[in-house]
Amino acid sequence: MRICIIGGGITGLSAGYKLSKLGHKISIFESGSFLGGQASTIKIEDFEIEKAYHHLFATDKSILDLYKELGIKNELNWYKSTVATYSEGKIWRTTSPFDLLRLSLIPFTERIKLFLISIRLKLLRNWKKIENETAFEWLAKKVNNKTFEIIFKPLLKGKFGKYYNKIPMPWFWSKIQTRVSSRNYKLQEVLCYPKNSFSHLIQTLENEIKNNGGEFFLNTKVTEIIEKSNQIESINFEDIDSNISNIEFDIVISTVPYSVLGKLVDLDSSLKKDMNEVDYMSAIVMILVLEKKVSDYYWLSIADNNFPFLGLIEHTNLVPKELYSNRNILYITNYVEKDNPLLELNYEELLDLYLPFMKKINNEFTKKWIKEFRFSKIHYAQPIFPINYSSKIIPLRLPIKGLYSGNTAQIYPEDRGTNYSVDIADKIIKLIEKDY
Q1: Distance CA 348, CA 381 (A)
Q2: What pLDDT score was predicted for residue 62?
Q3: How many CA atoms lie within 13 A of 69 on its CB side?
């Protein structure tokens, strides 16, 4: 069959590879000039690194299996992670459960509560039991006000902005599941990162698809999905020179956000209503190549809402900096509402805003440390789900025969991640095999 895939991210590439391997004729349409989506990489000096920080957890079975299937499993290296939280003017180590028990930032009885909360959520299998509450409400009832104000509220506000008190509790549950499950027998978190960045995975998938007869249309925007008698007929698309063309397809797989898909095809009004229930945050990601490290931690969460950014992910505190010309690689990450004025700032303006707060983390930090930088703004980076979203989630198989959708709004209660991109592609493939 002829299959059109809209979007060249990990979902589109994974689906394209596996479907082309089954003998289908695959065409992938990507509006940008590159493949990989949010896992795409950029070249800095003599190395490549993701535009937005990435790692894998021990539970990321779908993508780990994909590496194995592609014959590149030997690229995967595992590293002990280090985690900390900045609060009340200090950095507090929060790498292990024992660090929580030593967290003198809050009373000892409250530390015990935090430890028990993590255990309780880890043991909870049916997350739908907590779906009718927000994370804000659920957590506020489990700890005292001081603990909530110091630990949870700043993290929710930093992550979700104006939506901080509307996020369903299953989102928090899913984060506990992935992080706790990625601990070794010593209760240390262990994370995975490929030695050739994710660029080799993306390149390998592209090559496999081409070897299987597939084709790519970069800088090409699908403008309409055409159906006849409630069945996929063809698509219209526009190339970089604004030329409009049409190709017939048996199947269309959309990996784009609902707000984009809704403009391409006329769907049932009740379906569109549920699609509109999902909003999105944008991400602002600054990569600094530094001559010195900022902290001793890989992941430093900022639990202080006076800060203009959410966290510092110091990549070379996880992965050896020898792989990066002995430079230190730092991501400064931020999630903002799509109308946030920070999205209007350029690199220099944002760095000037960040600089005083970087000095609070490390008072020696100076612009002179910066040897190179990259700066990107990523839209549709973080889906915002409503309460009881499982009853509204859009099915992967849409009502038009031959039309399927797989995006970050459909991996609930997770919200993003390369593993879930591969997993949702696998689920769509199973549906196609069943339907045809």
Answers
A1: 23
A2: 97
A3: 13
CB 197 within 8 A of CB 50: yes
Helical pair 135-142 and 153-160, crossing angle rounded to 10 deg: 170
d(CA 35, CA 254): 15
Q: Where are the alpha helices (DSSP H) in 8-96?
A: 10-21, 61-69
Taking alpha carbons only, the member of 375, 49, 35, 384 closest to residue 219 is 35
E strand or H helix at 276: none
**Which of 310, 307, 311 is closest to 360 using CA atoms?**
307
pLDDT digits (tens, 9 = 90+) for 260-271: 999 999 998 888
C-alpha angle 215/219/222, rounded to 5°? Answer: 75
Rounded Cα distance between 93 and 295, Å, is 11
Tell me, rounded to whole angstroms, the distance of Cα 207 from its chain centroid.
Answer: 24
pLDDT at 94 over 70: yes
CB 277 within 8 A of CB 263: no
